[in-house]
Design goal:
It catalyses: Hydrolysis of terminal, non-reducing alpha-D-galactose residues in alpha-D-galactosides, including galactose oligosaccharides, galactomannans and galactolipids. The protein contains 13 helices and 21 strands. The protein has about 425 residues and is an alpha/beta fold. The strands form 5 sheets. An 8-stranded parallel β-sheet has the order 10-9-8-7-3-2-1-13. Strand 15 and strand 16 form a beta hairpin. About 50% of the residues are buried.
Length: about 425
C-alpha cells in the first residue's frame, strides 16, 4: 500500500452539528464553504459521519431496528431521502464527484461488522456462495449502536464481506473511511481485516479508527502497520474538562507521531454545533475564545488530525478566522518533534509548555498553556525551550495567533533572557522563535 496521510488530515465532519442526520445539501454547503475559505490553508477533506444509510435518522440517538438502506448483498447505501443523488443505484459516486471537483477529498463513516438487517434477511455475500449469516458473529455487538453485528473472522465469509464493502466504497470514490467501534475494546482482527480489504480494493483510502477510550500505546506497532488515524479518546465536546484531559493524552502520544500514522485527539467542537446532534441543542461552541485557541494549538503542536465539527456556513466569523490562520496548517504539516517540555502545578493551575521545530529552518514553535481560571503573568526562561549554546544568541519572537490583544514583549530576545508572558484563563501563548 502506498503511504497515505503523510501529514495529518484537515477537514470537516458533520457529527458535532448534525449527528446522524446530515443531508446531501448540508454536506455540499459545508464543502463549498471549505473550498472557498479554508482549502488554501490546508483544509481539504469532507466526511459524512454515522447513519447515512438510515432514512429515519434523528437527533439525540440511534434507531433500533431502523429500515437501513442496503443493497442486495447487505452493503449500506445512502438513504435517498437525505442523499437524492444516490437514486438509481449511484450510491455516493455523484457526491464524491462533486467534492473532487472542488479539489476536496471525500470520507464516510461505517460501523464495525455487518448490518443486523442483512443477517436477518440472510443476504448473499457478494461474489461468493456464503451469506450474511456465515459472515456474522452475532455474539459481538456494539454497546452503544444497534445497527451491526461483528464479523466472524474465523470464517472466510467475513473477509469476503469486507472486501465487497470496501470495493463498493472505492468504486464510489471514497478517500477516507472512519470505522467505529474498533478500539474500545481493541478489535485487532477487525483492524487487520479492514487493512486487507483496503489493500485489495486498489484505491488509496485513509483508514481512521474510533473511538479511543483508554487506548494504550502498547497497540502502537499494530496500529501503525494497518491504519493512518486512530482516536485516543472518547467523543470530545465543547467543555473545558474535555480539552484539559487531552493535554495528558497528547503528551503520551505526541512523541510517537510519524508520517502516515497519526494519533487523533478527536474533532473540533467549534463554531455552530448541536443543530441536530447527539448532545446538546443548537448553539455556538461553549468554549471561550481562549479555550478554542488552546484546543487548536494543542492539536497542532501534537500533530493530531483536525476535523472541524461545526456547521461552517453558519459559524461565527471569529471561529472561521481561527481555522484560516495560516500558522495552523503550516505548523501541523511541517512541525516536527512536538512534545511536552514542562508541566508544573502552580497551585491555582498548571503551566504546561510544548515545543516543536521546523525541519528546514532554525525556527522553534513554543506553546505555553495555562489551565488556571484566572489570568497569570509568567516569566519563562528562554533556555528552557531552546536549550543552551551552541544555540543562537538571540531569537526573534512572533505571536502565531497574532490577534493584537496581547503583544509579545520582545521583538528579539537574548537566549539567556526570559519570555514575560500574559497568560489568559484556560489559554495559551503560541510563539514562533526564529534564530536571530
Amino acid at each position: 500500500m502506498a503511504l497515505l496521510a503523510p501529514t495529518p488530515p484537515m477537514g470537516w465532519n458533520g457529527w458535532d452539528c448534525y449527528g446522524t442526520t446530515v443531508t446531501e445539501a448540508e454536506v455540499l454547503a459545508n464543502a463549498r464553504f471549505l473550498a472557498e475559505h479554508l482549502l488554501p490553508t490546508g483544509w481539504d477533506t469532507v466526511v459524512v459521519d454515522i447513519a447515512w444509510y438510515d432514512p429515519t435518522a434523528r437527533a439525540h440517538g440511534y434507531n433500533a431496528g431502523a429500515p437501513l438502506a442496503l443493497d442486495a448483498h447487505g452493503r449500506q447505501l445512502p438513504a435517498e431521502n437525505r442523499f437524492p443523488s444516490a437514486a438509481g443505484g449511484h450510491g455516493f459516486r455523484p457526491l464524491a464527484d462533486a467534492l473532487h471537483a472542488l479539489d476536496l477529498r471525500f470520507g464516510v463513516h461505517v460501523m464495525r461488522g455487518i448490518p443486523r438487517l442483512a443477517v436477518e434477511r440472510d443476504l448473499p455475500v457478494h461474489g461468493t456462495t456464503w451469506t450474511a449469516r456465515d459472515a456474522a458473529d452475532t455474539s459481538s455487538t456494539c454497546a452503544w449502536n444497534p445497527d451491526n453485528y461483528g464479523l466472524d473472522h474465523d470464517h472466510p465469509a467475513a473477509q469476503a464481506y469486507l472486501d465487497g464493502q470496501v470495493a463498493q466504497l472505492a468504486g464510489w470514490g471514497v478517500d477516507l473511511v472512519k470505522v467505529d467501534d474498533m478500539l474500545a475494546p481493541y478489535h485487532s482482527r477487525a483492524i487487520e481485516a479492514w487493512a486487507t480489504a483496503i489493500e485489495r480494493s486498489g484505491r488509496d483510502i485513509v483508514l481512521s479508527l474510533s473511538p479511543g477510550t483508554h487506548l494504550s500505546t502498547a497497540h502502537l506497532d499494530h496500529l501503525r502497520g494497518r491504519a493512518q488515524m486512530w482516536r485516543i479518546s472518547d467523543d470530545l465536546w465543547d467543555r473545558w474538562e474535555d480539552v484539559h484531559a487531552q493535554l495528558t493524552r497528547l503528551a503520551r502520544w505526541a512523541p510517537h507521531q510519524r508520517p502516515g500514522a497519526w494519533a487523533d485527539a478527536d474533532m473540533l467542537p467549534l463554531g455552530r454545533i448541536g443543530i441536530r446532534a447527539e448532545r446538546g441543542e443548537d448553539r455556538q461552541s461553549r468554549l471561550t475564545p481562549d479555550e478554542q485557541r488552546t484546543l487548536l494549538t494543542l492539536w497542532v503542536m501534537a500533530r493530531s488530525p483536525l476535523m472541524m465539527g461545526g456547521d461552517l456556513p453558519t459559524s461565527d466569523p471569529a471561529t472561521v478566522a481561527l481555522l484560516a490562520n495560516p500558522a495552523v496548517g503550516h505548523v501541523l504539516r511541517t512541525g516536527q518533534d512536538g512534545r511536552e517540555l514542562l508541566r508544573e502545578d502552580l497551585g491555582d493551575g498548571e503551566l504546561v509548555v510544548w515545543s516543536a521545530h521546523a525541519p528546514t529552518t532554525r525556527t522553534r514553535y513554543v506553546a505555553v498553556f495555562w489551565t488556571g481560571s484566572a489570568p497569570r503573568r509568567h516569566a519563562l526562561p528562554l533556555a528552557s525551550v531552546v536549550g543552551h549554546p551552541p544555540a543562537p544568541a538571540t531569537w526573534t519572537v512572533r505571536d502565531l495567533w497574532d490577534l493584537g490583544e496581547r503583544p509579545v514583549p520582545h521583538a528579539t530576545c537574548p537566549a539567556d533572557d526570559d519570555l514575560d508572558l500574559d497568560l489568559p484563563p484556560h489559554g495559551v501563548r503560541w510563539l514562533a522563535l526564529d534564530a536571530g
